[in-house]
Amino acid sequence: MSSKGDELLFSKLERVQQTFAEYLSEATNLAKQVNYVLDRLRAIVYSNTENKIKAISRPDPKTISESIANIIEKMTSLLKIQQDLLQQILNECSQEKVQCDTCSGAGSIKEKIYVRDEDSINEFYQDKRCDQCNGLGFLQTTKPFSEQALIMLHHLIDLYTYDMQERTGK
Ligand SMILES: [Zn+2]
Questions:
Q1: Over 60: is that where the pLDDT of 108 sits?
Q2: pTM score, two decimals?
Q3: Which uninterrupted H or E stretch holds 37?
Q4: 113 CA to middle of ligand 1, Å?
Q5: Strand 97-99 relative to strand 121-129: parallel, antiparallel, unpaired?
Q6: What spacing in Å lies between the alpha carbon of 98 and ligand 1's midpoint?
Q7: C-alpha 135 to ligand 1 mean position (Å)
């Protein structure tokens, strides 16, 4: 048994997976930049011709530094997106309902209507009941889906627990 709620939650979980893949790719790039720094430092510690040639072929320290700053910014932002997304999904799974993505939980959407009077056409917005969630603002998920997703989510969210304690502790 599946539901529209399960489908929506599934697509959110796919987004979580995607952020992990993006994070991994940034981490790989970071390791590469750190390697460039090591290549340059190696030529100072062990100053032979081979190491010197290798060091010269690496980007200059300023370029490496800028790259590292960019990568860290992306990784930090990915972690924040991940954390918010996971917290949201965790709450949704616990309640076995997911916020409607069509009306963002409002239950209604603004619909533009045009009213013509004698010499002009005026635009108005009126509230229209959201068809996706029947005005509820959320979609029901099934118990099997929510329960299985929760098993994973409880552990994933632990990734950020330490970080959160650090922040609130200071
Ligand atoms: Zn809705």
A1: yes
A2: 0.78
A3: helix 4-45
A4: 20
A5: unpaired
A6: 10
A7: 6
* Residue 170 confidence (pLDDT): 45
Q: In angstroms, what is the span from residue 119 Cα to ligand 1's centroid?
A: 36
Residue type for position 67: S
pLDDT in tens, 57-66: 999 999 999 9
User: DSSP 3-state helix, strand, coil percentages of the chain (rounded to 5)?
Assistant: 65, 15, 20
Long-range contacts of 74-79 (CB under 8 A, 24+ apart): 74/22, 74/26, 75/23, 75/26, 75/27, 75/30, 78/19, 78/22, 78/23, 78/26, 79/23, 79/160, 79/163
Q: Quick check: 71 pLDDT over 50?
A: yes
Would you state the pLDDT for residue 158? Answer: 86
Q: Buried (b) or exposed (e) across 119-154, using 16+ Cβ within 10 A?
A: eeeeeeeeeeebebbeeebbbebeeebbeebeeebe
Query: Separation of 62 CA from ligand 1 center, angstroms?
Result: 50
Closest CA to 86 of 20, 168, 6, 3: 20
